[in-house]
Amino acid sequence: MKKVFALFLLVAVLLAACAPAATPAPAPTAVPATAVPPTEVPTAAPTAEPVELRFTYYADGVEADVMQPLLDKFMAENPGITVVLDVVPYKTIDEQLPVQLESGSGPDLARITNFGAYKAKLLDLRPILADSAYYEANFPAPILEALNYGGFPDTLTVTGPYVNKTLFDQAGIALPGEGATWEDWTKVTEEVAKATGVQYAISIDRTGHRFAGPAMSMGATLINAENGFTVDTPGFRAFAEIVKGWHDKGLTPKEVWLGAEPVNSCIGAFKSGQLVMCMSGSWQINGVAKDVGDAFDWVVVPNPTGEGGSTGIAGGSAVVAFASSKHPQEAAKLVEFLIKAENYSAFSAGTLALPAQKEVAAQGVAFKTENPVVLAALSAYTAEVTKLTEQAVALNVHPFAFAYYRNSANRIAQYLTGELSLDEMLVNLQQDIDKAIAEAQK
Amino acid sequence: MLLPMNGIRRVKNLFNRALSPLFEFFVSIADLLFGTLQRLVGVRGMPYVFVLPNLLIFGIFILFPMLLNFVYAFTGGASFLPLERPWAGTANFDRLLLCENYLEPRTCSEDLFWRAIYNTTGYVFFQVALMILFSLVTALILNRNLKARGFFRGVFFYPVLLSPIVVALIWKWILQENGLINGILTSLGRDKIPFLVNAQWSQVLIILISIWAFMGFYTLILLAGLQSIPADLYEAASLDGANPWQSFSKITMPLLMPTMVVVLVLSLIRAVQVFDIVFAFTGGGPGTATLYLVQYIYSYGFSSPNKQFGLAAAASLLMAGVLIVLTIIQLIVRREDE
Amino acid sequence: MNFSMRYLSRKKGGKKLDFTDALSYAYLILGVIIMFGPIIWLVLSSFKTSGEIAKFPPRLLPYRQQTAVVAGYPEPLPLYLVTLEDGSTQTLAQVRRVGLEAQLVDPLNPGKLIKVNINQRQPLESVYFGLENYKEGIESFNFGLYLWNSIVVTVLATLLTLLVNSMAAFALSKYKFRGRQTIFMVMISTLMVPLSVVLVPVFLVITNVGWNNNLLGIIVPAAATPTGVFLLRQYMLTIPDELIDAARIDGASEWRIYSQIILPLAKPALAVLTIFSVMWRWNDFLWPLIVLSRSEYFTLQVGLASFQGELNVQWNLILAMTVLTLLPITFVFGFLQENITTGIATTGLK
Fold first, then answer.
1. For B151-164, what is each residue's pLDDT tens digit?
2. What span, in angstroms and rounded, lies between the C-alpha atoms of A342 and B97?
3. Distance (Å, rounded) from C-alpha A77 to C-alpha C48?
4. CB contact under 8 A, B312 and C197
């Protein structure tokens, strides 16, 4: 008995020893204090319980800096609500958020990219929104369905190639027109690279997402009739062989597909002026403009054409509210605020992102830049949006899109290094995706 | 170097003078508590009291999660809540161990698991061997009567303090295609070297970088071993007419052996666990050339698109099993030494 | 051959600098270059703009293009060294570039527009250590708060580690009690399993304890390091038992024996554990990433990682912030260098 008591005492000591840790830890009040705009006066809503919404957010560039003023404005309009933006590494969104939600410790809102993965965990906003009709009418239905009507796409991206126009001019070669194929582009960029003494001709970001666009343009149908994935199609094979050809002939910077990042972009090589053509996407515009500066002229060209059309892949991010939120009303209020044309447009303008909101898209966004090259690139990408095929839109909202994206990047890399033959690569990739789907549906 | 040293010493003294009353105060407060405890449980109960706080934390946050891995390994599904996972029996182990030909990863059901095993084996072998070689040479040199020995010791130790991610970042910045070394080669009119995209290069570099990052630690341990060898042994040997090579092979090596075993074991454990540096440096590539076991487990365990916790847990149990067997062998060997 | 043999042997006396000494110094100096060179390169790179980081071939020092204010143009114009048609070179300011043609003016005589091919001009640059990356990095998140969190976590976790590990090591080395062997073996076994393979159950446990988004969640779990217990136990074994017996005869309590005899004698081993604990906690990335999702609790390492988006990595900011996170640990090391190196040496880690 004595021993038990002693143990009990010791636990108490231990807890007491840990307790001081809590005091020097910054009191949570410290952060809202910085986040709360000066306009919020406690007298404004004396009766309402103050509500704090946690908004888990990731940024590729300036998004958080553009979002914060909008939230400040929201908080000024709604004195009872505090929104705290938790800017986390993308890794957290990708890896930690799903387990967090499952354990019931998730945030109220988050910015996500894996549209189809959350489904039942999202809060159906339709019954809560003051004007649900506006919400439903102003965003593409397939995206809202994938999100279970639990949020909205805050950016729309589309994949497409960047081309170094100055190198074409120096080589005295004209840019191929609208109907050019990937074979044509491979040939012509190789000529340009040779003529100008530039090291690399052509490249594509390392991910199944970027890869899918050209493959689909060459006739691949990734999503099969049962809404599963079938990778072994002639179009997919054909584009895989083209990319393999780039690697074997030394036309492409190998670090893109064989390097470290889970998603690796060719845009770095493009910015340094060492690459004629880089197949990436609309989210890079701002960075390219900034880092290239006056070094050379660059343009965004239409996606090359094949028997499947000339399609990029849709993408982007979405702001969603979770069903586990204790403040669904307030979360819905914030969503309602953010999808208002005026606010949505401010976000698009500040981040130079294409709008997915139909009213905003129809009005046109006054992008916060005077750089004509950037504006030209934005309108080139806007044109690509209209050319997206049904599959190209469906892919990004597929619940297992990420299983395809990541596994294909790894498997295709194995094919490019020669570890696997084309046939083995396709078999293995198919198995990877099937296993991931089977495990998730158990 | 000397002046700041003095300054540092003075600051340290101040520090000590300020801290020791604080420490005294803490000791006497705690003495009241532990005195009570001692009256309750007696002297023979005190070791349990002393070991308990550590054991509690260890049990809850280290041991228990590891034991939970058993639950995951024998269940399936994508849920991470153990109770919501359907029983799967040995299915996860079967998947990992199913191979037509164990020497040929591509014939295995989980080809990447086997590639990771072979890669890890090769890495561990060469990394440990080279690590010991480099640390030993450095320790032998630092053991000589040289000027600024303390400074050089510090220099070799400094990278040990860097986080693996920073180590990878630093070296990537130097070795990548547009990095420093290729920049120098290009300006000398030479061809670039594909450090990161060539399987052999990246395998070799991972080994060298992990040696760069951690050899300082082993060097210091070996140095300690060298310094504990009595100097009169060497004097006696030279009086007997032994040449330097003889005194190295007949005195230094045998007496250094126990320290060498420590270094061998510690570096072996670390090498098998290699992850962060590689993950940030090559990401396992090119292809799967530097895919090691822990990364394989991580990519199925926490990384979202594959979320097959059962498979990851099964792989981690297989790995832990092998490691624990290795440790036990090591403990037995060392007991025999003593 | 003889040289290499003498090289391997211990040096006796040491009056004159002989060949093997020279060789040793050469090795050590090469070591300094290899050990510090990469870090210096990191520091230099952290001053470069994102555009310059992307450039190839990279240059050792950070450069900025020089600009000049020219009458008639509101913005300062970038300066170029231009080779004119007559072969002479002149410093000109560029007004604009159209395709392959650059249009420049003489800053002193801005009236006349000079048109040349872009290959005939070289940007005029000068070395410039700008703090823009540092400023932007610090401003883009709550740097002060994250720094404070990192310090709190590092200091408290280290103190707690020292306390609980040394208590356990004391028990395991100086008492014979039932279960001692078992406890020691279990701890040693877990030494083998890296955290990265048990992330999911760890997350589950933390969540159930309720330490998600709580600094305790990163301070306490890390305190019971098997490595620390192992290291301290091995060192305490070398402390003679007679001291303890004598103290007991004098009527000292067990706690007094631990705190006033064992701890002071174990100082070198405690110094080693201190630096390792500081380093582990300061550099820790994976554990905070699992435990923390609210920004008021973020540590510097988590903040640093948030420059990695899905599609874009802001390398210039990562480099600058990495250099900042290196400063404290470098400082602590410089401060404790002697203690650490001699500590490891005297601990011997037997």
1. 888 889 899 989 88
2. 58
3. 41
4. yes
